[in-house]
Design brief:
about 130 residues; alpha+beta; 60s Ribosomal Protein L30, Chain: A; six-stranded mixed beta sheet; two-stranded antiparallel ribbon; 3 helices; 8 strands
């Protein structure tokens, strides 16, 4: 299996990165937003954007042969502190049964002003070389 996973996202080719990289037992997923086919979805709804971004990130994890249960760390970046609870609720919906380590950070902005949240996910396969 190649150690790079691509989703065809707008910025992957333009900025020269992969959606995810397999590094030994780790799957490290690049920042993911609610952008699909070059369009930002759920404009104005931080919770729905977070759910979409987590789904995109988890698709990369699954392409690597792991699952949501293998996620050990998440990060989310929000542009407005009022969205912490909404994004936190989305995180709980997706990962509440897994309980990975998690960091939430407020940032000045994202690449598109319609984006309210960006997420990162790291998964670990026990016993992999």
């Amino acid at each position: 299996m190649d150690n790079r996973i691509f989703s065809g996202g707008t910025w992957e080719k333009r900025y020269g990165y992969a959606r995810a990289v397999l590094a030994g037992p780790w799957v490290i997923v690049s920042g993911s937003t609610a952008t699909v086919d070059g369009e930002v979805l759920h404009v104005g709804d931080a919770r729905k954007q977070a759910l979409t971004a987590f789904a995109i990130a988890l698709e990369a994890v699954e392409k690597a042969g792991l699952s949501c249960h293998d996620v050990v760390r998440t990060r989310y970046y929000i542009v407005d502190e009022r969205h912490y609870d909404e994004v936190g609720a989305a995180h709980r919906q997706v990962f509440g049964h897994v309980r990975p380590a998690c960091t939430g950070v407020q940032v000045a902005g994202l690449i598109d002003p319609r984006m309210l949240v960006e997420v990162e996910v790291e998964a670990y396969r026990e016993g992999a070389a």
